[in-house]
Amino acid sequence: MLMKVMLVDDEPFILQGLSVIIDWETEGFEIVKKASDGEEAIAYLRENKVDLIITDIRMPKITGIELLETVREEQISDAYIFILSGYNDFKYAQAAIRYSAMEYILKPVQKEQLLESVRRVAAKTENRIQEELDSRRMQRGYLLQNMTALLQGKGKEENLTYVRENFRCGQGIRYLHICLNDLLALEEMSDEEVSELKDGVYEQVSQYLREDADHLFKDFFVYEEDYEIGFIYCEYMTKEKKLSEEEFMKALQKTAQSGSKNLPVILLVGKRVEDITKISHSYSSACVLRSFKGFQDTKSVYYYEKEVQVNPSGTVLCKQPLDDLVTAVNENDTLRINKSVDLLFSEMDKLDRNRETVTMNLSWLIFRLLDLAAEQDESVNQDEVLSYISGSVSREEIIRGSRAHLRMFACEYAEYLVQLRKNVSKGVLTEIENEIRERYAENLTLRELGQKYYINSSYLGQIFRKRYGQSFKNYLNNYRITEAASQLIRTDKKIGQIAEDVGYRDLDYFISRFIEQEGCTPSRYRKSARAEE
Question: What global pTM score does this model have?
Answer without folding.
Answer: 0.60
